[in-house]
Amino acid sequence: MSSYPTFSFHTTADEVATAFSEIIAGKNVLVTGTSLNGIGFDTARVIAKYANLVVITGYNEDRLKLTEEAIKKEIPSANIRRLILDLSSLAAVRSAAAEVNSWPEPLHVLINNAAAIIAPFKLTVDNLENQIATGHIGPFLLTKLLTPKLLAAHSATYTPRVVFLSSVGHALSPGINFATLGHPDEKQFQSMAAYYDTKAANVLTAVELSRRAKGRVLAYSLHPGAIFTKIMQKEEAPAGLQAIGVLDEKGQPKDESIFKSIPQGAATTVVAAFDPRIEGAAGAYLNDCVLANELVSAFCSDPANADKLWEVTEEIIGEKFEFSS
Question: Alpha carbon of 186 to those of 121, 131, 218: distances in Å?
């Protein structure tokens, strides 16, 4: 393992994928949220160079086709499969998961990349707050339903992985209000707070998934870095990011040196998905392509909070997420 390179803030997803090309070879990977010019797209693109199968997802068929076309234009040999997935709808998640479970292939890596735009209060079809539904509850259900596919990939020499894209913003959450998670209260809602809570939920879910899986599945959460993607430029995101000093009064990056390119932003995801050096750190949080548990907030470092979130989310989806002994 000492032959693998050292990664950093500046490392690109292409560099990580090249380093782990032999590990990626033969793997089947599902990436949520793969629209063009996003982190998920670049993640899928670099993995598709070496993987057996890359499943790309989105709720818009036309945009999903554009993603597939862009990847195949660069990598004609890429094996891409499109999956319509609306994470804001529990019924839609169940439908998409049923389709995946009908396929013959096992699933080696599930990358929960998708997130909702930071926006005003909005209820989903299930009467859940849209950000937490799309960024946590939907991915939780998807992961639960695809776990048999992941376990089918387990062998004496390989352990499947689940990756959750979080953010350093998780540390700005004072603590998830478990009482309103399934019963949102518009009067208590703040768009940036909902974003922070969602990212905190991602960290907690990775911790608890790894604990409950007992080595059969490895889960990780990560901060991809500050990347000036479309999600930073829509709805209420600019005002919220201005308030914490990330964007200037014109909605542009205040300090270019802290921002990453999209290829740099996708790099930590690929590390979490394939780096063999982190196998012994299940549930860990990564930043700049390396383990960074010291950056995890006190709330997200408390195992009791991880257990509580798991149980509350099970109640919301109406299903137990358990690993048979």
Answer: 6, 13, 36
